[in-house]
Write a structure and sequence with these properties.
Layout lengths: L14 E3 L4 E6 L5 E7 L2 E3 L13 H39 L23 H20 L1 H9 L3 H33 L4 H19 L8 E2 L2 E2 L1
Antiparallel strand pairs: 1-4, 2-3, 5-6
Length: about 220
């Protein structure tokens, strides 16, 4: 039966492994040992010739205009949306803590009015609510997209944009809650900030990696 698959790997000589290979032994039915790649980045390489596609005509014009539109139109709109969402979240925190709605927004000095930091309850409760909503949206995304497939194109576009708007707004609130907690309730010494940054980077690397594939094999033993 294996003869039917003799040609399956003939083109592998054109595949170049860019990153280092991390592997561990796996036994097959014949008792021999194979290697399984855990993390790899591959690129298809044509050894005979290099095909370069150059934009022509309207595609060349679009190639030139696209970064200009992104820099002059889309990026300012993105910054405006983020800034408006941030200010609305600050207004919400001011309302929850009984502060003036323009506190921390109008640049005035409120020291004499004895306004201080936002309460931990308002920050933590808001953060937890946002996380619950994000979890619900994440768990229900398959049902949502299945529902979209049955809708008219116009309705589908409107609902999808509303979904993106809700997600973006929740991400802004989530970001600001974390930012404010760190800004108001953690030390500001550079040593603490440096250690916290390195620890966060390490945790991020571990979480985004495939935990089940992090075994390292030395001399046939896993460590």
């Amino acid at each position: 039966m294996s003869k039917h698959f003799d040609n399956e790997y003939h083109n592998q000589q054109q595949i170049q492994i860019i990153s280092s290979e991390l592997s561990q032994p796996l036994s097959n039915v014949e008792g021999s040992t194979n290697r399984r790649r855990l993390t790899q980045i591959i690129s298809l390489v044509d050894n005979d010739q290099e095909n370069i596609v150059e934009p022509k005509g309207r595609y060349r014009l679009l190639f030139i205009v696209e970064p200009i539109l992104v820099a002059c139109l889309l990026f300012p709109i993105l910054v405006l949306f983020w800034d408006c969402g941030w200010n609305l979240t600050v207004t919400m925190l001011n309302s929850l803590n009984g502060f003036p709605l323009t506190y921390n927004l109008d640049g005035k000095d409120y020291t004499d009015d004895e306004y201080g930091n936002y309460s931990p309850q308002s920050l933590i409760v808001s953060y937890v609510i946002v996380e619950i909503l994000l979890l619900i949206l994440y768990l229900g995304q398959d049902l949502f997209y299945d529902f979209l497939k049955r809708q008219h194109t116009l309705i589908k576009m409107i609902l999808l944009e509303i979904h993106i708007l809700i997600l973006s707004s929740l991400y802004i609130v989530q970001w600001e809650m974390i930012w404010t907690i760190l800004d108001q309730y953690t030390p500001q010494e550079w040593t603490f900030i440096m250690v916290l940054s390195l620890a966060s980077l390490f945790v991020l690397i571990v979480i985004t990696g495939t935990l089940s594939d992090m075994d390292i094999w030395i001399d046939g033993k896993s460590i």
